Amino acid sequence: MIAPKRGRAGRTRGHAATTADEEWLSEVAASAAADVGAPAELLGEYLSLLADAAIRGGRPSQEELARIGAYGRLAATEGVPPGRAVNLYLSAAWRLWRELPGVVRSSDSEVVRGAADAVLQVVGDAVAVFVEAHQDERRQSIRREESLRREFIDDLLRGDADVAALVERAEPFGLDLTRSHQVALATNSSDSRGNDFLATTLERVVVDAFGDRDVLVATKEAYVVVLVPAAGGRDVGVLVSREVRRGRAAANWRVGVGRLYPGAYGIARSYEEAREWLELAVRLEVTASVVHARDVLVYRVLGRDQAAMVDLIRAVLTPLVAARGGAEPLLETLQTYFAAGGVATEAARRMHLSVRAVTYRLDRVRALTGYAVDNPEQAFSLHTAVLGAQLLDWPRTALPD
C-alpha cells in the first residue's frame, strides 16, 4: 500500500509528528479499503487534504484535484467500479472524521461546524473530480476497444492480414481461428440504421444457441455479421432469419449463409460467399428469406465463363426481342415457368394470368427461338439461357461484346 503523502497539515510540525500523522492516515486508508474491497492506493493524497481541511479549513488546489482525477482514471483502467471507488472515499472520510484529533472534537460548536463544512467541501470536490475522470477514462476505453474490435473484424473478414497476428488478436474475442467457422449475413433492403441495435439483440440469441466461444456478432457496412463454429446440425441462417424478421419490416430482410471452412482464411471465404449470394439473390429475384451458398453453386458455374454465356443468350433468347412488347414479357414467363417446376398452371397463378395466356406465350417462345419447353434438351438450354440473362440483367442491360 502506498502511504498518503504528507499533507499541508503536517508541513509545519516536526518529523516525529509528521510520521505519526502518516501512520494514522495509512491506518484510516487501510480500514476504509477493507470496508469496501477497493485498493487503498486509489485514495492518493485525499486523506491529507481532509485532515488539512478539518484542522486549517483549507481547500484543495486545482493541481491537487487533478491528482485525485488521475486516481479516478487509474480506477477505471484497473476495472474498479465507480460505486465502489466512491464508497472508498466516503468510508475514508467517515473514519477520518471519527478519529480526528481533539481540536475537531472541541466543545465549541462553531469550531466543529466549521471543520465539518470544510471536510464536506473537500469530499464533494474530490468525489466529483474522481467520478468525472473515471467516466471519461471509461468512455475513452470503450472507444478504443470498439476501434480495435472493428479493425479486427475488418481484417478477419478481408482475409489479407498476417495470420499469426490475427490468431493472437482473436483470443480476447474468444475465437479459436484453428477451428472451422461459417458466416451468416443479414441485410435490410430498406434501412440499415438499426443494425447496431439489432446486433446487440441478436448476439444474445446466438450465444444462447451456440455458446459464448467462437461466436462473434458485429456490423459491417449494410450487413449484420454472425460468425459461428461448426453447429452440429443447427442452421444459423434460419436462426438469424427468425430473429431479424420479428419487426414490422420483416419482408425486407434477407440472410445469406456461407459454407463452413477451417482456419482464418476460411472465415473470409465464408463471408465472401454469403455476400456474393445475397447480391446474386437480388439480381435473380430470389424470394427465399435465407440463401445458402450450397444451394446456389450452379450460378457460380454459369457465371464463370461469361463469353460462353453471352453466346448462349444471343443464340437462344435474342430472337424474343422481335416479339410484340419486346423480350421482357416472354422472358418473365419463362423465368416463372421454370421456377414453378415446369407447371403452367402454377406459373399462371404466380403471374396472375390465365393458363391459356401462359401457354400462348410459351408457344410464342417456340415460334421465335425454335426451343420448346416440353423438349427436355431444348428446355435445359432455355432454362440455362434464362438464368444467364438474370445474371447479366439482360435485356435491361446490353450484353457485353
Structure description:
The protein folds into three domains: 8-139; 169-295, Alpha-Beta Plaits; 305-391, PucR C-terminal helix-turn-helix domain (Arc Repressor Mutant, subunit A, Orthogonal Bundle), CATH 1.10.10. It has 15 helices and six strands. It has helices at residues 15-36, 46-56, 62-77, 82-98, 109-158, 163-170, 195-210, 236-244, 263-284, 297-304, 306-316, 328-339, 344-351, 355-369, 376-391; strands at residues 180-188, 216-220, 223-229, 253-257, 261-262, 290-292. Strand 2 and strand 3 (223-229) form a beta hairpin. Mean pLDDT is 86; it is low at 1-17.
* Strand content bin: 5-15%
Tertiary shape: rod-shaped
Number of strands: 6
Question: What is the helix/strand order?
Answer: HHHHHHEHEEHEEHEHHHHHH
Mean pLDDT: 86
Task: Report the structural category.
Answer: alpha+beta
Any idea what the radius of gyration is?
36 Å
Counting structural domains, the number is 3
Instruction: Output the number of helix runs.
Output: 15
Termini gap? 79 Å
Q: Which stretches are poorly predicted, pLDDT < 50 over at least 5 residues?
A: 1-17
- Helix percentage range: 55-70%
Question: How many strands, which pairing sense, and closed or not: the largest β-sheet?
Answer: 6 strands, mixed
